[in-house]
Amino acid sequence: MSAKKATKTANVFANIYEGHFDVNFDCVGVTVCRFALCFTMPPEDGDKCHYNDCGSCVSPHSKQASLGSLKNRISKELKLIEENFEG
């Protein structure tokens, strides 16, 4: 896959349950992740990413990008809720 198609970041799951905050980052696959780092680049389907730890993504750059995307989506959702509350 070409580098131009590698545009995704790690999947992110964040929650607060009974006051405890938890966040997890899952690998999206080396051929679509823009932060993948493999022995040979560009990676192919069977290549293992250096940042893949048992299916979890440990890349700090991918985590930062994923949390930024999540933050933007949460901000949009909050805005919709506020608009519905006011309207």
Explain what you see.
The protein has one helix and four strands; from the N terminus they run ββββα. Strands 1-2 form a two-stranded antiparallel ribbon. The chain has a two-stranded antiparallel ribbon with strand order 3-4. The chain starts with 10 loop residues before the first strand and ends with a helix. The model has no long low-confidence stretch (mean pLDDT 92).
Proportion in β-strands: 15-25%
Taken from the alpha-carbon principal axes, the silhouette is elongated
Biggest sheet descriptor: 2 strands, antiparallel
**Rg measurement, Å:** 16 Å
Please specify the SSE layout and strand pairing:
Blueprint: E1 11-17, E2 20-26, E3 52-53, E4 56-57, H1 60-86
Antiparallel strand pairs: 1-2, 3-4
Summarize the structure in short.
The protein has one helix at 60-86; strands at residues 11-17, 20-26, 52-53, 56-57. It has 87 residues and is of the alpha+beta class.
What are the key terms here?
alpha+beta; two-stranded antiparallel sheet; 1 helix; 21% strand; elongated
